[in-house]
Amino acid sequence: MTALLLVLLLALLPASAEERDVVDRIVAVVDDTPIAASRVAFESELRERIQAAPTPAGFGRLLTEAIDPLEAVIFEEILRNQPATRALGTPDEREARARLDGFEATFESTGAARVFLQRWGLQRADLLERFVDSVRLDTAVDLAISVDVTDEDLQTYYARNAERVFAGRPFEEVAAVVSRQVYALEFEEEYNAWRSRLRSRARKRYIGR
Fold first, then answer.
1. Is the pTM of this model over 0.85?
2. pLDDT tens for residues 72-97?
3. Between 20 and 30 A from 52 (CA), which of 36, 99, 152, 173?
4. DSSP string, 60-90
């Protein structure tokens, strides 16, 4: 009986580091931070559910980028380690709570949302903290990217798309739409260039590829 009890107790103990490594191997390292396969798997499922939400854009840029989950985790870790990001204070939780509520709304019931957390060994507070972090990282992106849209940029874009996009409507009628679209295009161009620079300068390596 004693021997059986000892076996049961050993089965309930946390796995050793060597055993965990077999199940949850390290797939990349950014600076001195190892990235485990389980972290990538969690981010993948998180992002899949966000894409199924009625308004995915409400979750911010970094959680909705069309990018491989491992690459997304690597870039977020790089961004998290930037001095400018570290200098940011804790953001207002209201936006993070809105993201948490929106995420939970993707489940058919509160019970299903609870099962998701239990499966990943998380509490609701842990998921809130993940969304707080996402708000902070999105803020770091917004502060890093500077876009200066000129009148010439607007007129050039309008002239190129006057018939195909705006059905010949006068510039004055569509100026606000033109401004938003030009800003979005230039922001993406600046963001992609900035993102590439951060990645190229970071110390990172893949394991097992």
1. no
2. 999 999 999 999 999 998 888 999 99
3. 36
4. -STTT--S-HHHHHHHHHHHHTSHHHHTS-P
